[in-house]
Amino acid sequence: MAVHKLILDDAFEEALYTLIAIHCRLEDYRLAYLLNNHLGITLARKASDLDYNNGQVSYSIFEWEDQKQLVTWSLVSNICKTEEFQKTDYKSLFDNQENITKTFQLVPEYKTVNYFLKIDSEISFSKEKYIIDSILKLPQIATAYSVDSNTLKSKENLIFN
């Protein structure tokens, strides 16, 4: 019996995008508003959030499609906090339930990042530096920097469509 081997190295092309990490304490809608004003973009909240773990974890996402340059901008939250009640195992006179807060990250490699700004196009270094500098001019932003997407283990979490 003959064995057929398929080589798919060239069949799939890596998606090119620029990823910027943003550290701040702002609510997602407030950050989207500030980015819209300072970068001249029009981020708008999508109708549905990103759902993972069968709907138990969701991340807010804002998106804008630039029709002139054919580029999609996405602002997505990296942190999701959920509360759940857990019964205590010990026996007591009263049924005790503890309220436990669990924290999940969209990109676990960057646990302290609050938001990611994903630009679905590989932009020039000077334009990327301009965008980061514009973000850093906002007094509410602690820091922002570029992330090398080739080093991420959880790249598949950044596929939004």
UniProtKB/TrEMBL annotation:
It comes from Algibacter luteus. It comes from the Bacteria. This is IPExxxVDY family protein.
